[in-house]
Amino acid sequence: MSPRRKRMRRMMNPPVVKGFKPYGQQYDLKKSEPVIILFEEYESVKLCDYEMLNHISACEIMGVSRPTFTRIYASARQKIATALAEGRQISIEGGRVAFDKDWYLCQDCKCYFNNPDMDMEIRKCPLCKSENFKFIGQSTVKETSPDTDEELCVCPLCGYSIKHMQGKPCKDNVCPECKVPLKRNNLL
Amino acid sequence: MKIAITSNGKELNSNVDPRFGRCSYFVIYDTESKSHEFFENPNKNAENGAGPASVQFVADKGVSKIVSGEFGMKIKSLLDSLKIQMIVIKDPVKTIQDIIDMLNK
């Protein structure tokens, strides 16, 4: 049986460089294999150690659960430490990521748009001036992707549902009618 | 405010070009003076780097929004740093006139 597909990790921007090289007399470029750091690992280090976020807020930005984020982060640190200790090159490549910024979909003119100025809130569609638009987050521009299957937290008794948020377990939400913890829709 | 629209031809009834970097023409529409101007895309047949070169071309004209069918990977981060808004139209049968009418609404 093949393993479950990895969830798409969200990234704000690609890294500014493709990698790093050591220097000094001991260094022989041909002998050492580069350490490959995945994009998602680079992003986890950037969010935690450069932007000083905690794992909970960082995992929400990347669209993965908190334990998954901690695993990505631990792997990143292990690889960076290997490169430092063994004097190897670092190459940043690969991984399962989506580079999208925040996207909105206008329900009236069916256009997608983003918000380049994060300080300003969007009140109406820039094209048709309609106020009927919704926030769709990342990578839904590719409509055929299996990642866009909507995940819901559903009440097992009455069927009440809300949108599932990565990093927030369904059972932490309680059905307002039946007062029971919610469950994920594909587990029911 | 100036808005760039990618176009298939140089008339107002031409359709929106679904590509950004290698579109045929750019229409620069000024919402204040209600005037429009057509520019031929110099990067239409570029081997590579058409996207960033086109961004440079429209950014020099001082636009703050771009309407097109699709934006490539390299362009998104560039436009983010230039604070230019991307508007992606999934309905390519719209004409330039339709878009201008919507912007004027």
Overview of the molecule:
The complex is a heterodimer of chains A (188) and B (105). Chain A has 3 helices and 11 strands. With 188 residues, chain A is α+β, with helices and mostly antiparallel strands. By secondary structure, chain B is α/β, with parallel strands linked by helices. Chain B has one domain: Dinitrogenase iron-molybdenum cofactor biosynthesis domain (Nucleotidyltransferase, domain 5, 2-Layer Sandwich), CATH 3.30.420.130. Chain B is 29% helix and 26% strand. Chain B contains 3 helices and 5 strands. Chain B has helices at residues 50-60, 73-82, 96-104, and strands at 2-7, 25-30, 35-40, 65-68, 85-89. Chain B has a 5-stranded mixed sheet, with helices on both faces. In chain B, helix 2 (73-82) links the parallel strand 4 and strand 5 (85-89). The longest helix of chain B is centred in the middle third of the chain and has 11 residues, at 50-60. The two termini of chain B are 15 Å apart. The relative contact order of chain B is 0.25. The model of chain B has no long low-confidence stretch (mean pLDDT 83). Classes of the chains: A alpha+beta (188), B alpha/beta (105). Chain A binds chain B through residues 13-14, 99-101, 109-117, 126-129, 141, and chain B through 65, 67, 73, 76-77, 79-80, 82-91, 99, 102-103, 105.
Question: Strands, helices and their partners?
Answer:
The complex is a heterodimer of chains A (188) and B (105).
Chain A: E1 9-10, E2 19-20, E3 35-37, H1 39-50, H2 55-62, H3 66-86, E4 90-92, E5 97-98, E6 103-106, E7 111-114, E8 133-137, E9 152-154, E10 161-163, E11 183-184
Parallel strand pairs in A: 1-5, 3-4
Antiparallel strand pairs in A: 2-4, 6-7, 6-8, 9-10, 9-11
Chain B: E1 2-7, E2 25-30, E3 35-40, H1 50-60, E4 65-68, H2 73-82, E5 85-89, H3 96-104
Parallel strand pairs in B: 1-4, 4-5
Antiparallel strand pairs in B: 1-2, 2-3
Helix pairs in contact in B: 1-2
